[in-house]
């Protein structure tokens, strides 16, 4: 059996193809077998007012695709435009690899894995922005 396995905590909510699903009172594992399903853990969701940094903005746009609020074809240009300047902002090899992989996954319409990778840059972005402000 292949696909995505979600491990959900009690009462945890997840968005699957635009539908909010809430887990019961116990931890559980759910296997998503449909390869192109759009999945978003609501605990990880970035709210519109939190999309206030370059990485967060790109993540937010990807979330809108996953939630079904914006079609991929409409958001593609915004995501690609948002990813381009990040290559120069992140100087370390690991961050650049993450960006490159996220971009490839996004272009292959694998939005959830691309978003998951891109979220790894949030703590790194915070450090860069703190250094620039200080």
Describe this structure in words.
By secondary structure, the chain is α+β, with helices and mostly antiparallel strands. It folds into two domains: 4-42, no CATH class; 46-133. The protein has six helices and five strands. It has helices at residues 54-67, 72-83, 86-89, 93-107, 111-119, 122-133, and strands at 4-8, 13-16, 19-22, 28-32, 39-41. Strands 3-2-5 form a three-stranded antiparallel β-sheet, with helices on one face. Strands 1-4 form a two-stranded antiparallel ribbon. β2 and β3 (19-22) form a beta hairpin. α1 runs antiparallel to α2 (72-83), α1 (54-67) packs antiparallel against α5 (111-119) and α4 (93-107) packs antiparallel against α5. The radius of gyration is 16 Å and the shape is globular.
């Amino acid at each position: 059996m292949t696909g995505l396995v979600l491990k959900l905590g009690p009462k945890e909510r997840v968005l699957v193809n635009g539908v909010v699903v809430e887990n019961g009172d116990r931890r559980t594992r759910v296997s998503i077998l449909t390869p192109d399903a759009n999945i978003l853990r609501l605990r990880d969701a970035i709210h519109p007012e939190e999309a206030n940094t370059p990485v967060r903005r790109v993540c937010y746009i990807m979330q809108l695709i996953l939630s079904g609020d914006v079609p991929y074809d409409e958001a593609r240009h915004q995501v690609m435009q948002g990813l381009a300047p990040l290559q120069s902002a992140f100087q370390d090899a690991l961050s650049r690899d993450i960006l490159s992989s996220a971009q490839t996954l996004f272009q292959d319409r694998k939005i959830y894995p691309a978003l998951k990778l891109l979220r790894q840059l949030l703590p790194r972005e915070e450090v860069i922005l703190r250094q620039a402000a200080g």
